[in-house]
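Entry 12.
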Amino acid sequence: MLPHSCHHRACPRCGHDATQRWLERQRDLLLPVPYFHVVFTLPAELRRAVRDHQQALFGALFRAAFEALAALCVDPRWLGGRIGALAVLHTWTRTLEWHPHVHLLVPAGALAPDGQTWLVPPRRKQPFLVPERALAERFRGRFLHLARRAVPGLHLPVIPWDKRWVVFAKPVARPSVVLDYLARYVHRTALSDKAITACDDRSVTFNYRDSRDGQRRSMTLPAHEFLRRFLQHVPLRGLHRVRAFGLLHPAERTTLQRLQLLLASRHAAPVNDNARRPEPLPCPHCHERSLRLVRRLSADECAARLPTGAPSRPSLLARGPPLSFTGALPT
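Predicted 3D structure (tokens):
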């Protein structure tokens, strides 16, 4: 926590503690199953309309993304049950351009209609949730319908029918990594403070990573243009960047906790009795670990083999004759 923090959710320096608390809450809600990272992007023709009607159309974007995915997942050809998703809104590119899109973190499975069975995607050569082209088409129709209903009289630009809306879904090995990425901008906006390398009264220079080749580059913008780009991503008052749907909705906490217990017992690793046994100590003379029992030594034989001047310990010898192993006794 920085002194004199403003606590504004667009500040590039504040929000560290709030971000950590958000991460801890979300990690506690993770299911012990594989996950998918699904991204829904609006075409360039609609971005101006969304910026002019953010409060209404961002809600339509959230709902259209989840409802399109849920409608395909309820189909028995893919999953055949109810799903859940954590959705986070982003509105920027790495150069601070206006680019609204939604990230969804989705468990790779669904709850069957009986409320007791966890359904998993059919096995294929590569992890697969739903067909992306069908998902994009359903997302397109659902968003346009919800947008017209949310803003009556809204004039949407004509989008060619052959233009494909960008939607992709990829499996993630560790959902916590995706959570870390999404958490960076839950309580911040667009650009971190350390990305700005130089500034004066006329210009601002910042670093970014080029998405085309992954190289680090720098960009210098006039001060007014930098402020315009940054401030357009400051969310409106009352606008939520993070929303939960389906099985991850707060109203489904009891169902989610039951699923966590069910899936944890199902995916628990088998107990390996051999893993619990400590590794046998090597013989100090032949350095072998696999020793073979030959015979038991009497107390007199043990006393005779003690080094000269070593104190005798009759109380220990009286407990019982020790074991004798090949290669373990000194000459």
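Annotation: Residues 16-190+234-266 form one domain. The CA atoms of residues 265 and 324 lie 45 Å apart.
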